[in-house]
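Run log, item B.
One chain of 553 residues. Sequence copied directly from the ordering sheet:
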Amino acid sequence: MTTDPIYIFGHRNPDADSICSALAYEDFKKRTGQEGYVAARCGNSNERIDAILGRFSSSLPVFIGDITPRIKDIMVPRNKVITVAPEATCAEALEFIDDYDIRALPVVDAKNNTLGLISVFDLGQFFIPKPSHAGLLREVSSSVNDIVRALDAQSLHLHEPERVEDLYIRVAAMSLETFGKISVEQRQPLNQNIIIVGDRSDIHLSAIEMGVRLIVVVSNLSLDSEVLELAKQNKVSVIISPYGSAATAWRIRSAVRVSQVFQKTFETFGPQEKLAQIRQKMGTQGITTHPVVDEDGKLLGLCTKTNLLHAVKRRIVLVDHNEMSQAVLGAQDAEILEIIDHHRLGNEHTQQPVLFLNRPVGSTCTIIADLYRQHNLVPTPRIAGLLMGGLVSDTLNLHSPTTTDLDAQLLSWLSPLAGIAPADLSQLIFSAGSIILSGSSEEAIRNDCKIYTEGHYRFMVSQIEELSLSNFWNEYASLQKALETIVRKEGLSFGALLVTDINTQNSVLLVAGDDSIVESISHPILRDHVFDFPGVVSRKKQLVPYLTSLLEP
């Protein structure tokens, strides 16, 4: 039995530590005998991440932008759905419903177009009409061939068996003279009547003389060969039913084609619709079965209320973050198994206890590297290099104020395993390209941004690390406009962009949004909405605590 993978996700706008820690933790899980874990990402890469992965011959984690549970995750797929054609009989539909213990069948044509649904309720209304419409029990719109199929009958002679027409069921429980009078009074042409009879030759002959449409001999009884020859001459169809009179009459009624009974007005779902929305829709309706179709109306699967009850949550691991505002879309609906992080604690809660490993170190890769050491595992050169990449990037090669002794110890341990000196790797990473110049200003800001909630404030902090501040000043106007646009789009109280000069270990802060917050910033103003933050290089340890202090009442 196969199970869904357990995805290891970094935060929504991944940096090197986020990507590298996910890849390394997948390897750690495999090395410790824990199968089924897969590194994933929910955002785009950048030149610095690509430089690290390229240096150590590693591919990006699989991209999954949204894990919100959707219909496609729980529906019964097309290859397991029992369907019925519009040309099928109600008898065949009933057999499917009974054999497979289901309540409704999608009606599809030969090209898999979804035409409607036929349910037990629809069939019940047809076979048991209201008392005022009891006369309908004697009527059937069908063909002789369909009746043969519904009865699993033996065909002795069939005349124009494919023709569908309105027919009237008569059980030979009265004299034929009386039967003839009733047919005339009810304006039912004799050649549209079905006679259900036993092995009485006199009735057989009289029915043939009247020119009825079909004679059904019940209980596998016989018919004289002379009578059969006469029926052929008079174009009267004759079949043998294996059932008694009552059962035969009922099953002839079931020979009506599905096309005459099924629901032609019905609600379908698309495969990408969210389960939360579907639950609301199905909760207010009596209908329990819905076809899942593509944009052309082709059947993809079936969704029932039972499917919703048994919906299985995706299982995920979060690395390098612990707040839902930074997590992959849909994380709030997933089962979070583990959190490996080095940031402040968010105020999220989980439904079940989780493994929460949070340590005040410079990078998540530091935590994972230490797990290898604790388990006496030696990372491969590839994994050692990835761990170094995340550690060097997040600590600015140990120059960030978030750096700890453990970061330095593990970097020294990893370097010979990866076959590269920290300084060389640092040069490779930070010279890989300018984030500001590699794309649009909005892409640069979103490249490594995180959204925080503090009281009734919701704000964003982005950080870009450059080899100098010249690119920032050259693109200042565009970055300011983009930051204002993001704040407006996301409905934020304010947004802040910290641009750090790696060489001087100084930063500038561009802010947009709530004027009262902007005005409360006490740092020197360098330009409109740009503040000087000398010595500030850590968003986590220096900038975010400062900004949250401004929000205190």
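Observations after the first pass:
- The mean pLDDT is 90.
- The first strand starts at residue 6 and ends at 9.
Flagged for discussion on Thursday.
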